[in-house]
Design a protein that fits this description.
- Keywords: Transferase.
- By secondary structure, the protein is α+β, with helices and mostly antiparallel strands.
- The protein folds into two domains: 80 residues, Glutaredoxin, CATH 3.40.30.10; 102 residues, Glutathione S-transferase Yfyf (Class Pi), Chain A, domain 2 (Up-down Bundle), CATH 1.20.1050.10.
- 53% of the residues lie in helices and 9% in strands.
- The protein contains seven helices and six strands, in the order βαβββββαααααα.
- Strands 4-3-2-1-5-6 form a six-stranded mixed β-sheet, covered by helices on one side.
- The protein is globular and about 45 Å long.
- It starts with a strand and ends with a helix.
């Protein structure tokens, strides 16, 4: 498998899932501004015309896009990892959480706040409208270790998104103690600790490249 990723982006969730599953994969870094695959200088848009990570090429050569779909593929591809959920209501709840994280947190809250080109009014509106999603999550996580009754790809995605609070000062996890405790606890999980450490180093290298090119 080939995972196209950018450091500390939402694609890190798939890296976490692959590490958790003990799966072999090639990790191909994509430079976000130029859409270039750094290992060979190729145009990433030849793989995914939209130019967004994560993108996964399976062992059969099938190209998959969209974070939630890729995470569910990994869970199904490696069932012994326990990253997925059984058919029925458990599988539906996994879908529910992947959708919540992707729409309410990832796109609804964090993307506007992280966008350097977004007007301050847009950022303020996103915070006013969507911080309540963290209230909901905080209440749900009270007394829970994971989103389901076990660690799943939904947790891999949620930790990846919560990790962005390091770059979003208006979103202070101290206001949501259950979310903060969940995040700090899962950051110690070996698959997550490894992924964060590796991608943080790559992110620093990315910033150095940008500085040198400026």
């Amino acid at each position: 498998m080939d995972l196209y990723f950018s450091p500390l982006a939402c694609s890190m969730a798939t890296r976490v899932a692959l590490y958790e599953a003990g799966a072999e994969a090639n990790y191909l870094e994509v430079d976000p501004p130029t859409k270039t695959v750094l290992s060979d200088g190729s145009d990433f848009r030849a793989v995914n015309p939209i130019g967004l990570v994560p993108t996964l090429r399976t062992d059969d050569g099938v190209v998959l896009t969209e974070n939630a779909a890729i995470l569910q593929y990994v869970a199904d591809r490696f069932p012994k990892s326990g990253l997925g959920a059984a058919e029925g209501i458990d599988r539906t709840r996994l879908h529910q959480w992947l959708c919540f994280i992707g729409t309410e947190l990832h796109k609804g809250l964090f993307i506007p706040v992280l966008d350097r080109k977004a007007p301050q009014e847009t950022k303020a509106y996103a915070l006013e409208k969507n911080l309540s999603r963290l209230d909901y999550l905080d209440n749900y996580l009270k007394g829970r270790d994971f989103l389901l009754d076990h660690f799943s790809v939904a947790d891999a995605y949620l930790v990846t998104v919560i990790n962005w609070t390091m770059a979003t000062p208006p979103i202070d996890l101290a206001k949501w103690p259950n979310v903060k405790a969940y995040y700090e606890r899962l950051r110690q999980r070996p698959s997550i600790a490894k992924a964060v450490a590796e991608e943080f180093e790559l992110y620093k290298a990315e910033l150095a490249r940008k500085k040198a090119a400026a």
